[in-house]
Amino acid sequence: MYTCIDCGKTHDKLPQFFMWRLPETPDGKTIAIVEEQKSLGRTEDGLCFVRCEVELAVHGHSETVLGFICWVEVEPEVYEEIVQYRANEKARPPFSHLVEGWLSNSVHGVRNSYGTRVGFEVVADDPTPYIRWASARSSLGRRMKIGATPRFWHKVAAQWS
C-alpha cells in the first residue's frame, strides 16, 4: 500500500503493464486471429500481426517503466520473415533492422495512437519485440520521447480498471 502522489489516496499497487489480447479495428472491435507462434498471428483473409511492447519511462522512478503490450499490423512478407526467424533463431543471424508496421490497438492515455506508424526490434529469445520508434509527429512518438509522469500513470491505470 502507498499514498499516491497524484490523488492523495491509498492504493495497493498501480499496474505497470497493460496488455491487449487481440488486435482491434479503429472503432475498438477485436479482430479474430490465429496465433501461429507466441506473439504472431494472422486473420483468415491474410492480415498479419505481431504483438509488441511500447515502454515509457516514468519520471522520478528511474527503474520503472510502463509497458503497453499491443498488436502491430505488418506486411505479409515481413510477417513471414519473422515467422521463419522465430522457427530457428539459433541458426539465423539476428535482425539488423527495425521492422515497420502500424499500431492495431489504441494506447490508453495517448490520443490518436491507433494506426501510428512504428518500428520495432526483433530480439532473439524474446517473443515480444520492443517498439523503438513511432512517427515523430504522432502523439505516441511525442509520449515515447517525454515518458510518463506519475499523473499519466495514475490516469492510465484508472482507465484500465
Commentary on this structure:
By secondary structure, the chain is of the alpha+beta class. The protein contains three helices and ten strands. The strands form two sheets. Strands 3, 4, 5, 6, 7, 8, 9 and 10 form an eight-stranded mixed sheet that branches. The longest helix is centred in the middle third of the chain and has 12 residues, at 76-87. It starts with a strand and ends with a helix.
Walk me through the topology.
Layout: E1 2-3, E2 10-11, E3 17-19, E4 34-37, E5 40-42, E6 48-58, E7 61-74, H1 76-87, E8 99-103, E9 117-123, E10 126-134, H2 139-146, H3 150-160
Parallel strand pairs: 3-7
Antiparallel strand pairs: 1-2, 4-5, 5-6, 6-7, 7-8, 8-9, 9-10
Low-confidence stretches: none
What's the pLDDT, averaged over the residues? 90
State the total count of DSSP E strands: 10
From the helix content, strand content and strand pairing, which structural class follows? alpha+beta
Terminal CA distance reads 17 Å
Radius of gyration: 17 Å
Strand content: 35-45%
Query: How do the SSEs run, as a string of H and E?
Result: EEEEEEEHEEEHH
**Major sheet attributes:** 8 strands, mixed
Count of alpha/pi helices: 3
Question: Which overall shape is indicated by the principal axes computed on the Cα atoms?
Answer: globular
The percent range for helix content is 10-25%
